[in-house]
């Protein structure tokens, strides 16, 4: 942190243990944050790079937006293309227009179509007017495999976030040296049945820490805030948490194999428009066979065991020492979800495990409907961002009409301070009906709680009662971290259900994983637009796609960290990070910004995701209304 | 049995590297006898199909010695039915193969005890004997 | 400052010499070193001091860091990762803000001329404000940190060749590390992300021999980038027999046939995915059913659709490869 001569301005840059480049500047009143400013400081322009590409390729580009929540942009992209095609097929069917276009003949030819038995998939050059919903369906197996991959991403991301990105805000590494291994083992034994809890195990762990500290080369633990009075855990809890930090590192290597089985690797597994790339053939030596299904079950079991025996008990144990963080760090009080994890299809939000909706002013008695296609609902503003709108920077644009031309107006590096009264971030400011909204685990858990989801209400109420906290404590830094653990519990149980359904499907003779209708450009409309929706681990994610003549015409991503980390809008409304930091943050020592890190990390920032976009200047945007 | 399995195991083997490899092993064995020159062949660096690899292993067969070493995952060392020709396979803790070698030598290096480990074990045996005699002295004392 | 050797660290963690020799044997094979070099490798590596490593993140997605966190054979590799002092790494370091920058400067000062610089992400040259850390532009931070470094490892295709930020129309003027730093040894470990084992193996080689391993024309370690995916692909026999999947989930796909006609870039992509595989040897893209994207090659983003075949199959007979001629023309 850089405390400067005008001494009321505090800078923390880089914010570490996050994805990407985030800077916080704060106006201080003594040791208390008065005004906080959140800035994304790096841009790549991936949406401009997507212009003019084959929509089937888009997932690979979009996925490189982020390698942490690695599958979410690939998934959203594939869904955006599929949504655009379905909407166009339905609209054109009503109008009786033929799909396919002369321009298509100059396109890279899609693979030949092979009609699938009993499914009546169309061949190239189909005359529309008769496509049924069943013909357009993404195969059930593909839907389940996608859910399993998304679910795995959640469990992997949330556990790693807690141990490797967030825990060191609460766990003092050096204090672990004072722990008694036998007492640590006794404590761990009380918390759960996790087998790696012997006194010998913790003795070895303590020795490891000792060797590291005595070497004088602390590596990643160097120069941190050890001994800060904000650390409240007894030495034994610190030692246990540190042991689990290392266990989680080993565990995560194993569970991502789910992505490798279906997508060939992690980070950046592969996807395909129209389904999933992996064929199912139980007797083959490749693709999804019996051996793969056994591996998959192993990984699902491993996920559930670790979440039930380690992650969730640790969250409760550690939270018990930090209850005062249940009263600060919330801020906006507005929550938004797009919804995800369909039982039937993406066209049926009623079947989602995570519902879609909006909550305003912490009022859980009313959940508002959200329409992603309505140009008046979701809009992005750039009045505080280093972008230029051709129609002026004061009004917002819906993502279908979105544009982003890079225009850096910040101070020339190297700089001390940003001009926070003007433009100060590579992030835009998204708003829902003009409201700044928080997205992410807390928004989802509140949405499910408000919609009276029995499983969520049960886990939330049980957790609160163990911690002896009132429900109002959810609206806080602590509540956000607790909500992440709650939804991880929900997901690990759901993973087993999806796996069982996949097996039932295969057993009944259905092995389809791909609908070729989507993949052949000859079946594409001349024009189309669609939105690919996801609940990413960090919150609501949407990719808005416009395609024309078989190419991408416009591509806009509005991502969770843009919602949360975005700067002020034209009405001077703060974004979620800014509001949260302005919510009762008094720093013990402004030179050691531990309190700031706690609240920021409770959001799990992902900046590469949040910084994006731009269009070719002044190009006229195609507007195709699908009604 | 299903068609593609038959197909894969019967037709997909095209490297033709097994016979040249066996000649190399024969040559290395004669060098070992003549000049005490040891050879290690790294099978990972050699294109071999799965069935060629098992063809090679079947040809070499099992001789008199088999050693299981537990060192961060198993290592299995087998002397083939041709004395002086050893097959060594390293596994990691996940039981996945990390490396596979043919050694032409009188004793593969990993079987030998290492001086560094022996230094430690000398320390250990000294303190263990001490602990044992302490215990028996104490027991004797208590009986008195 | 007296730094512990790896041998001392192994002893402290109860790792036997025999185990270490096994690690050296498998690492030598990865690095394509002769097995006769194992004893030398063990001696030199065992006596190597714990080096300081500074890792700079520029225009990146953190996929490269995540890839390393998924390292193969955790216990063996953690030996090496415990044995480097990662003094600056945004994603996992505990300190933030000024304390983080202080740690970087302190490491560079204490280990002048000795520390290794790792970089992921490309560097935007269009405007210094396109990417900054602590108010400093990426290019300034790279130059400052490279000045006293012993060598640089560019991790991933973005740092190696510019990667996705450099893809058309390269909105931020992104370039590779080697476009900026020209007076230091640089090794490129490309891939989006790169194979983690390649990074470990290069570190081991550096610790042992105090230099980088043999490199190809694009400065990539030959041991990992000496052959194409196609050369070592288990589906290669189907290519030779002209048995191709024509669509996802068709009969050929279900039988595991070659993905060449679905756009597989394996024949022109140098990397070791087909032998080392991903995530503890679990699988790799082709094995899961998706064609190779070619992600370790320069400008792979701009070589046409991922699903368009590289060239007509018949043309391949003029390219190196064993079975091509045998079948050429038969099915033309």
From TrEMBL, chain A:
What the protein does comes down to:
This enzyme recycles the H(2) produced by nitrogenase to increase the production of ATP and to protect nitrogenase against inhibition or damage by O(2) under carbon- or phosphate-limited conditions.
Is the keyword Endoplasmic reticulum in the record?
Answer: no
Membrane topology summary? Peripheral membrane protein
Cited Pfam families? NiFeSe_Hases
**Protein residues bound to Fe cation:** 69, 609
Kindly state which reaction or reactions the protein catalyses.
Answer: H2 + A = AH2
**Official protein name in the record:** Uptake hydrogenase large subunit
EC numbers on record: 1.12.99.6
**Cofactors demanded by this protein:** Ni(2+); Fe cation
PANTHER family to which the protein is assigned, alphabetical: HYDROGENASE-2 LARGE CHAIN, UPTAKE HYDROGENASE LARGE SUBUNIT
Binding-site residues for Mg(2+), renumbered to this chain: 47, 612
Provide GO CC annotations from the record. Answer: plasma membrane
Upper classification of the organism: Bacteria, Pseudomonadati, Pseudomonadota, Gammaproteobacteria, Alteromonadales
Binding, Ni(2+): 66, 69, 606
In the record, the note on similarity to other proteins reads: Belongs to the [NiFe]/[NiFeSe] hydrogenase large subunit family.
* Oligomeric and partner information: Heterodimer of a large and a small subunit.
Cellular compartments annotated: Cell membrane
Q: Which UniProt keywords apply?
A: Iron, Magnesium, Metal-binding, Nickel, Oxidoreductase
Q: Name one GO molecular function term.
A: nickel cation binding
Give the organism, scientific name: Alteromonas alba
From TrEMBL, chain B:
Species name for this entry? Alteromonas alba
Q: Which family does it belong to?
A: Belongs to the HupH/HyaF family.
This chain belongs to which protein, by name? Hydrogenase expression protein HupH
InterPro entries according to UniProt: HupH_C_sf (IPR038527), HupH_Hydgase_express_prot_C (IPR006894)
Coiled coil residues, start to end: none
The segment(s) forming the HupH hydrogenase expression protein C-terminal domain are 17-126
TrEMBL record, chain C:
Please name the top-level EC class of this enzyme.
oxidoreductase
Its recorded name reads hydrogenase (acceptor)
Which positions carry the signal peptide feature in this UniProt record? 1-39
Q: Where in the cell is it found?
A: Cell envelope
Q: Which organism is it from?
A: Alteromonas alba
- EC id: 1.12.99.6
* Positions of transmembrane segments: none
What keywords sit in the KW lines?
3Fe-4S, 4Fe-4S, Iron, Iron-sulfur, Metal-binding, Oxidoreductase, Signal
């Amino acid at each position: 942190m850089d405390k400067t001569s005008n001494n009321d301005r505090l800078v923390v840059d880089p914010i570490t243990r996050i994805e990407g480049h985030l800077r916080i500047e704060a106006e201080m009143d003594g040791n208390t944050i008065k005004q906080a400013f959140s800035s994304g400081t790096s841009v790549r322009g991936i949406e401009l790079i997507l212009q003019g590409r084959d929509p089937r390729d888009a997932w690979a580009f979009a996925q490189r937006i982020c390698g942490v929540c690695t599958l979410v942009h690939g998934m959203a992209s594939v869904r955006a293309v599929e949504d655009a095609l379905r909407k166009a097929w339905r609209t054109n069917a009503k109008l009786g227009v033929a799909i396919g276009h002369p321009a298509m003949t100059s396109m890279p030819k899609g693979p030949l179509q092979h009609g699938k038995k009993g499914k009546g998939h169309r061949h190239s050059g189909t005359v529309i007017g008769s496509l049924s919903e069943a013909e357009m369906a993404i195969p059930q197996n593909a839907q389940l495999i996608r859910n399993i991959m998304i679910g795995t991403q959640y469990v992997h991301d949330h556990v790693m976030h807690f141990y490797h990105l967030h825990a060191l805000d609460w766990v003092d590494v050096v204090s672990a040296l004072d722990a008694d291994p036998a007492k640590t083992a006794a404590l761990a034994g009380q918390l759960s049945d996790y087998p790696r809890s012997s006194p010998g195990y913790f003795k070895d762990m303590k020795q490891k820490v000792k060797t590291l500290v005595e070497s004088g080369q602390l590596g990643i633990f160097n120069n941190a805030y050890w001994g800060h009075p904000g650390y409240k855990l007894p030495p034994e809890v610190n030692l246990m948490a540190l042991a689990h930090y290392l266990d989680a590192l080993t565990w995560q290597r194993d569970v991502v194999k789910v992505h490798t089985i279906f997508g060939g690797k992690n980070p950046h597994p592969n996807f395909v428009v129209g389904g999933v790339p992996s064929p199912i053939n139980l007797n083959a030596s490749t693709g999804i066979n019996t051996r793969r299904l056994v591996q998959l079950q192993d990984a699902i079991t491993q996920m559930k065991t670790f979440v039930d025996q380690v992650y969730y008990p640790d969250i409760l144990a550690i939270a018990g020492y930090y209850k005062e963080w249940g009263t600060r760090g919330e801020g906006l009080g507005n929550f938004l979800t797009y919804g995800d994890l369909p039982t039937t299809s993406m066209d049926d939000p009623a079947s989602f495990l995570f519902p879609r909706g909006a909550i305003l002013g912490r009022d859980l008695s009313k959940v508002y409907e959200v329409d992603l296609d309505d140009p008046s609902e979701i809009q992005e503003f750039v009045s505080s961002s280093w972008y230029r709108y051709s129609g002026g920077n004061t009004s917002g644009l819906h993502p279908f009409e979105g544009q982003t031309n890079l225009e850096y107006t910040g101070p020339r590096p190297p700089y001390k301070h940003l001009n926070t009264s003007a433009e100060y971030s590579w992030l835009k400011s998204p708003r829902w009906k003009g409201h700044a909204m928080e997205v992410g685990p807390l928004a989802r858990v509140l949405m499910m709680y408000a919609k009276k989801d029995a499983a969520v209400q049960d886990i939330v109420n049980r957790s609160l009662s163990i911690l002896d906290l009132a429900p109002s404590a959810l609206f806080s830094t602590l509540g956000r971290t607790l909500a992440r653990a709650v939804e991880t519990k929900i997901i690990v149980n759901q993973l087993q259900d999806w796996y069982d359904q996949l097996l039932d499907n295969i057993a009944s003779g259905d092995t389809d994983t791909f609908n070729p209708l989507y993949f052949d450009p000859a079946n594409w409309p001349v024009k189309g637009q669609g939105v690919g929706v996801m609940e990413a681990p960090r919150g609501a994610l949407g990719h808005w796609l416009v395609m024309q003549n078989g190419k991408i015409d416009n591509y806009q991503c509005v991502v969770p960290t843009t919602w949360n980390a975005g700067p002020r809008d034209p009405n001077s409304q703060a974004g979620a990070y800014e509001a949260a930091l302005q919510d009762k943050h008094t720093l013990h020592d402004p030179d050691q910004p531990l309190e700031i890190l706690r609240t920021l990390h409770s959001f799990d920032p992902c900046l590469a995701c949040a910084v994006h976009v731009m269009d070719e200047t002044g190009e006229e945007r195609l507007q195709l209304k699908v009604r | 049995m299903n068609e593609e399995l038959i197909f894969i195991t019967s037709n997909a083997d095209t490297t033709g590297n097994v016979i040249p490899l066996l000649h190399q092993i024969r040559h290395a064995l004669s060098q070992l006898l003549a000049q005490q020159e040891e050879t290690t062949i790294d099978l990972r660096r050699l294109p071999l199909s799965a069935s060629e690899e098992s063809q090679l292993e079947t040809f070499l067969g099992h001789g008199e010695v088999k050693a299981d070493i537990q060192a961060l995952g198993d290592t299995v060392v087998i002397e083939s039915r041709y004395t002086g020709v050893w097959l060594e396979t390293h596994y990691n803790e996940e039981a996945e193969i990390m490396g596979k070698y043919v050694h032409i030598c009188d004793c593969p290096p990993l079987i030998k005890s290492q001086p560094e480990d022996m230094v430690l074990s000398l320390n250990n045996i000294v303190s263990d004997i001490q602990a044992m005699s302490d215990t028996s002295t104490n027991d004797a004392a208590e009986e008195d | 400052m007296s730094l512990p050797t790896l041998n001392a660290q192994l002893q402290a963690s109860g790792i036997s010499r025999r185990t270490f020799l096994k690690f050296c044997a498998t690492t030598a094979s990865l690095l394509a070193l002769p097995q006769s070099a194992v004893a030398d490798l063990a001696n030199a590596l065992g006596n190597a001091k714990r080096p300081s490593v500074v890792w700079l993140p520029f225009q990146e997605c953190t996929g490269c860091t995540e890839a390393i966190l998924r390292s193969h054979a955790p216990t063996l590799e953690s030996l090496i990762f415990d044995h480097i002092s990662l003094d600056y790494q945004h994603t996992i370091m505990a300190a933030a803000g000024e304390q983080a920058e202080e740690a970087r400067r302190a490491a560079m000062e204490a280990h002048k001329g000795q520390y290794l610089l790792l970089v992921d992400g490309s560097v935007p040259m269009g405007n210094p404000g396109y990417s900054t850390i602590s108010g400093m532009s990426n290019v300034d931070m790279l130059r400052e940190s490279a000045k006293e470094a012993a060598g640089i490892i560019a991790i991933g295709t973005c740092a190696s060749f510019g990667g996705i930020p450099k893809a058309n129309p390269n909105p931020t003027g992104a370039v590779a590390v080697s476009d900026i730093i020209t007076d230091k040894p640089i090794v490129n470990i490309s891939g989006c992300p790169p194979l983690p084992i390649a990074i470990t193996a290069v570190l081991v080689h550096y610790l042992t021999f105090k230099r980088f391993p043999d490199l190809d024309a694009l400065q990539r370690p030959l041991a990992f980038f000496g052959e194409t995916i196609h050369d070592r692909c288990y589906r290669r026999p189907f290519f030779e027999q002209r048995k191709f999947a024509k669509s996802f989930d068709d009969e050929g796909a279900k039988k595991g046939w070659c993905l060449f006609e679905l756009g597989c870039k394996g024949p022109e992509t140098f990397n070791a995915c087909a032998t080392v595989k991903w995530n503890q040897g679990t699988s790799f893209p082709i094995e899961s059913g998706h064609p190779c994207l070619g992600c370790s090659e320069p400008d792979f983003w701009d070589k046409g659709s991922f699903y368009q075949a590289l060239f007509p199959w018949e043309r391949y007979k003029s390219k190196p490869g064993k079975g091509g001629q045998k079948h050429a023309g038969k099915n033309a």
